[in-house]
From TrEMBL:
Gene: tpiA
Subcellular locations according to the entry: Cytoplasm
Record protein name field: Triosephosphate isomerase
GO molecular function, one term: triose-phosphate isomerase activity
Superkingdom per UniProt: Bacteria
Entry keyword Ribonucleoprotein: no
Keywords: Cytoplasm, Gluconeogenesis, Glycolysis, Isomerase, Phosphoprotein
Length: 252
């Protein structure tokens, strides 16, 4: 059975003291990593401190983005080498907000996924359609293309370690959750795409999260679906109690 991954994506929220307080409030109650992987995706300035504060616990720290080069003249960017050096273990790649607002595309996403593996970071690769694309029945084709391009050139072993997050853009921060059936339908499709593009073993192992208005009230139903292996959570991950409820749901 695939282990669930619950990741809280804080986006551009909190200041350092609040981030540290969150770790202090959660770290002793995070379920064992044998049962669920619990991750907070924090802004860059908090990463060093949070890795330090969460050391020896089952709470893992992720970055929300990175550049694909190791170093160089890229003012304002952060490299995988820097993240690895801090003790960060996961990195979100290709979030829809980065694709929409910061010019990320399938090519940069693919480069970043390779860079993550070159530095032993686990990528959480985001895909998902807009409302318009859903209404035009383009969801399956779009997500298929995003997944194929994001994972292009990876080995089977790397695909097995990858986390794909299916986040329909119309469900992000809107309170509109995809129904669990809608969410699962796309996650099943993603698994089939991985099977075709790589192998049955890779498809069986790859973890596929759902993201978009996940909260304590709907997480159980989403996680009960056959192809949903976790959640990437924005708003409901900001408060310690709510995050703990979500990771406990993942450990059931
Ligand atoms: O974008 C998301 C997580 O990456 C989802 O955000 P919300 O949970 O706030 O809808």
């Amino acid at each position: 059975m695939r282990k669930k991954v619950i990741a809280g994506n804080w986006k551009m929220n909190k200041v350092l003291k609040e981030a540290e307080q969150f770790v202090a409030d959660t770290k002793d109650n995070i379920p064992s990593s044998d049962k669920v992987e619990s991750v907070v995706c924090a802004p860059y300035p908090f990463l060093a401190s949070l890795v330090d504060k969460a050391a020896g616990t089952d709470l893992k720290v992720a970055a929300q983005n990175m550049h694909y080069e190791d170093n160089g003249a890229f003012t304002g960017e952060v490299s995988p080498v820097m993240l690895k050096d801090l003790g960060v273990t996961y990195v979100v790649i290709g979030h829809s907000e980065r694709r929409e607002l910061f010019g990320e595309n399938d090519d940069t996403v693919n480069k970043k996924v390779h860079a993550a593996f070159n530095h032993q970071l686990t990528p959480i690769v985001c895909v998902g359609e807009t409302l318009e694309q859903r209404e035009n029945n383009e969801t399956m084709t779009l997500v298929e293309n995003q997944v194929k391009q994001a994972l292009a050139g990876l080995t089977d072993d790397q695909v097995k370690q990858t986390i794909v997050a299916y986040e329909p853009i119309w469900a992000i921060g809107t309170g509109k959750t995809a129904t669990s059936e809608q969410a699962n339908e796309v996650c099943t499709h993603i698994r089939n795409v991985v099977k075709e593009a790589f192998s049955a073993d890779a498809a069986e192992a790859v973890r596929i999260q759902y993201g978009g208005s996940v909260k304590p009230a709907n997480v159980d139903e989403l996680l009960a679906q056959s192809d949903i292996d976790g959640a990437l959570v924005g708003g409901a991950s900001l408060e310690a109690d709510s995050f703990l409820t979500l990771v406990e749901a993942g450990a059931k």
